[in-house]
């Protein structure tokens, strides 16, 4: 992991535990993590806000506002030197199965000239699926962190492509890495696309990083 901020962490979303797990996995860099959060969901209920601010720093955004405004807020976070958590699928999965990453991830990285740290989050859907109010006691969760994609490498991916295609290339490459980080017991979360995004060839094999593990709470 780079020893500085001003970059994006891109991970697969399936639970409200995801934010806390990413912060834990970042170690000493964890306190610099920031996530954009729907203002009407996270901030209008003081109990919910206090609960989730234990996981990470939250920046309010209008859930039904424009994408441009959301991207502007994200750019400000990056320019201030924080680590921005992005879930490029757009929403938490109700089944735990991943879907294609949106091209807005590529736009955000290229337009702000910042790098991306891919991360696969394991077990959070089982521990606290969408709709659950509390995590399941004793559930095991883990994270695998991929290689940091610096701004130069991302620009090389976009070389020779138009804007829309360059954004798609970056998002697809990050998705490919995240999928490849998935531990075998969680292969079901990859869906029909498997180890590579839909319509993309599988990348060449390489060593998979170890899992950074945590336990939600001890068994009663």
The strand count comes to 7
Tell me roughly what share of residues is in helical segments: 25-40%
Q: Helical region count? A: 8
Alpha-beta content class: alpha/beta
Describe the structure.
The protein has 220 residues and is an alpha/beta fold. The chain has one domain. 32% of the residues lie in helices and 17% in strands. A seven-stranded mixed β-sheet has the order 3-2-4-1-5-6-7, sandwiched between helices. Helix 5 (104-111) packs across helix 8 (163-181) and helix 7 (151-158) crosses helix 8 (163-181). The longest helix is centred in the last third of the chain and has 19 residues, at 163-181.
Brief account:
With about 220 residues, the chain is of the alpha/beta class. The protein has helices at about 20-25, 40, 45-50, 65-80, 105-110, 125, 150-160, 165-180; strands at about 5-10, 35-40, 55-60, 85, 115-120, 140-145, 210-215.
How does the SSE layout of this entry go?
Elements: E1 7-11, H1 18-25, E2 33-38, H2 39-42, H3 46-52, E3 57-61, H4 67-79, E4 83-86, H5 104-111, E5 116-122, H6 124-127, E6 140-145, H7 151-158, H8 163-181, E7 212-215
Parallel strand pairs: 1-4, 1-5, 2-3, 2-4
Antiparallel strand pairs: 5-6, 6-7
Helix pairs in contact: 5-8, 7-8
């Amino acid at each position: 992991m780079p020893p500085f901020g001003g970059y994006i962490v891109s991970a697969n979303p399936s639970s409200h535990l995801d934010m806390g797990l990413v912060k834990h996995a970042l170690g000493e860099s964890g306190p610099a993590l920031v996530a954009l959060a729907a203002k009407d969901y996270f901030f209008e209920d003081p109990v919910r806000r206090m609960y989730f601010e234990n996981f990470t720093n939250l920046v309010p955004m209008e859930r039904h506002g424009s994408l441009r405004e959301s991207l502007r807020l994200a750019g400000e976070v990056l320019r201030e030197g924080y680590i921005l958590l992005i879930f490029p699928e757009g929403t938490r999965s109700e089944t735990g199965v991943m879907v294609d990453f949106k091209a807005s991830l590529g736009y955000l990285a290229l337009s702000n000239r910042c790098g991306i740290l891919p991360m696969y989050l394991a077990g959070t859907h089982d521990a606290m699926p969408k709709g659950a109010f509390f995590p399941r006691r004793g559930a095991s969760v883990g994270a695998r962190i991929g290689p940091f994609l610096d701004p130069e490498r991302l620009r090389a991916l976009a070389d020779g492509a138009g804007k829309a295609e360059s954004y798609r290339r970056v998002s697809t490459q990050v998705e490919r890495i995240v999928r490849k980080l998935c531990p075998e017991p969680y292969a079901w979360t990859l869906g029909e696309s498997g180890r590579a995004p839909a319509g993309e060839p599988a990348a060449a094999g390489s060593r998979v990083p170890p899992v950074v593990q945590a336990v939600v709470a001890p068994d009663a």
